[in-house]
Amino acid sequence: MQDNYLDALLSLPGIIASKVSHDGKWVAWSWFRTAPTAEVYLAPTDGSTPPIRMTDTNDNTIMLSWANDNQSILVMQDKNGNERDRIYRIPIDEPLNMIPLTEDDPNYFIRGGDLHNNYLVYGANVDLETGEEIEPTCMIRHNISTGERITLAKPQRSGFVSPSLSPDGKHILYTRADRHASGRQLWIVGIDGENDHEIVNLGDDVKVYGTWFPDSQRILVIGEGGPYRKLGIWDISTETLTWILDDPSRNIEGANVPANSEYIVIREVKNARLQTYLYHPTTAEEIYPPDLPGNLNLLAPAEGDEWIALYYSSKQPHDLIRLNLKTGDYISISRVWDRTSISPDDLTQAENFTWQSTDSLTIQGWLYRTLDAPRGTIVYVHGGPTAHSQDAINNQIQFFVQQGFNVLDPNYRGSTGFNLTFREAIKKDGWGGMEQTDIETGIKALIEAGIAQPGKVGITGTSYGGYSSWHAITHFAPDVLQASAPICGMTDLVVDYETTRPDLRPYSEEMLGGRPDQVPERYYERSPINFVDQIHGRLLIIQGMQDPNVSPDNVRVVTEKLQEHGVEYELLAFDDEGHGIAKPRNQKTLYQTLSDFFSSAFA
User: How far is 275 from 269, CA to CA, in rounded Å?
Assistant: First the structure.
């Protein structure tokens, strides 16, 4: 039963990076778990034919964008998770014909990618004159016919920069974080590299983002400030900004204007639940889709009252659908249920669970309960931390529940999905502060409610979830936590800062209040490696050996320290994985190992 169910879970497709063509006729996306690696698929938006497989490779391939002529797609591919992506173009009438546009396995990291005629625009942390990797992400214009590359703009610092090319191919929109690690300012530069200038600045430490209107003459601006985000429109011709939606009661997580639409698609997230609706920038008319159980993300208009949308929940696999906004009727475009033996009855519903942290802040999480008497409880911590867990299928959690464990998936402070104040609260203490107390009080709330038992609680998670797992096993009492299985988690924050991708270092500075040389005490106090002598429970360390984000050096230094203190541990390393264990064959090994590990620890 275990193998059959796990095999079914590991073949249950999960969608990321779904993009509708500019003419609205096609939608392309990446599917995980339909093959040994993530692959790209394509389908007509009228649902008339099954999905067409566009890639068949040995490495994860992710949908990136549509070329401006709607006749080809751009995809990105790395090698075994090293994140050194290469961009390919695939004509939609030539599936599997991957035409390389950038170099193989570069010594830098690429962000984004838009193709207009012969010009490919992307961000890359490379100095084109020397060929050396640098920290800032430059805006690059790459002529795919001649191979010529020029730097259009070079920020002073990195800042998660993904350039966006205007629909008419004349301007590039991007953000800079030159002034402060916590801030973002909106900039624009011409496709010729001329007139690179700042257009929106709401403060040195305040973030602002922008996306293009289809007319290429206006920019939709998302500005942060105080406890909420507001929407505005920047007019290129007049160089003026007009705020159109300034409402503290709305938790706007994202917004854009799809091609062929007069409406802005606004994505609000309230208590970790997604609500998407349409907003007219002139009339302020709002159109809300039918209330379907789960999460609905509107992507682009089809015809009449119909829209292409992504639909999902913890009982519904990610499914691309064509939805009638008036009637609620829809058809499946991706036909996900045709590709699995899993049924909704085989999946456990996520329950809303809340508790109070020590400072009385309300924390929310998703609780998954096993049907039988639980063997124990596993806390699954999401990564980020600037992210949040949703009411969505997590095949690792679903397997744990089927194996007889209750699972808590907490949205600690610092998570998105609530409000801006909640997200920014993690910066008050920095990593390893009150957000870890939120997790600890969640465990105690489960014990108090009789859902979990002392001595039968474990923790796991990837990336920041791995860091939280390290923190918990080095700080929580044994009656609160018995076992920990960190996956690709930071152990020494100084080593992590020095060995991570250069373009990611400013994120550590933002979250910890500076560089290691500026706030050395905080880096020391918040590094689990300095507290391994306090470990009293079981420890299983998991690492992808190609990880450029949380490098294997984190494992090397902590295992040396564990041996120095005589602390026992187990180690599971994957040579062909990067930041996270993504390949189904490796996930099968991982999930079975985790289940056995926690079972043994709780016994």
Answer: 6
Residue 284: count other Cβ atoms within 10 Å of its Cβ: 9
Distances (CA, A) of 228 to 60, 281, 411: 36, 19, 18
Do 525 and 531 touch, CB atoms closer than 8 A? no
pLDDT by residue (tens digit) across 221-242?
999 987 899 999 999 999 999 9
C-alpha distances in Å from residue 452, one per residue of 258, 366, 537:
46, 14, 17
Q: Decide: helix, strand or coil at residue 600.
A: helix
**How far is residue 200's CA from residue 206's CA, in Å, rounded to a whole number?**
11
153-172 exposure pattern, b = at least 16 Cβ within 10 A, e = fewer: bebebbbbbebbbbbebebb
Nearest residue to 222 via CA among 285, 283, 265 = 265
> How is residue 403 written in tokens?
């194996």
Which two tokens mark 126? 């490379």
Residue among 367, 399, 335 at smallest CA distance from 8: 399
Per residue in 173-184, pLDDT (tens digit) is 999 999 998 899
What stretches of 320-375 show up as alpha helix (H) in DSSP? none
The tokens of 222 are what?
């998302």
Query: CA–CA distance from 201 to each of 154, 220, 389, 421, 511 (Å)?
Result: 18, 14, 31, 20, 21
What is the model's pLDDT at position 1?
46
Assign 266 to helix, strand or coil.
strand
Q: Do residues 408 and 363 touch, judged by C-beta distance below 8 A?
A: no
Write out the DSSP string of 108-174. Answer: S-EEEEEEETTEEEEEEEE-TTT--EEEEEEEEEEETTT--EEEEE--SS------EE-TTSSEEEE
Binning pLDDT at 50, 70 and 90, where does residue 2 land?
low
CA distances from 64 to 30, 57, 165, 208, 591 (A): 9, 16, 13, 23, 29
Query: SS3 of 483, please?
Result: strand
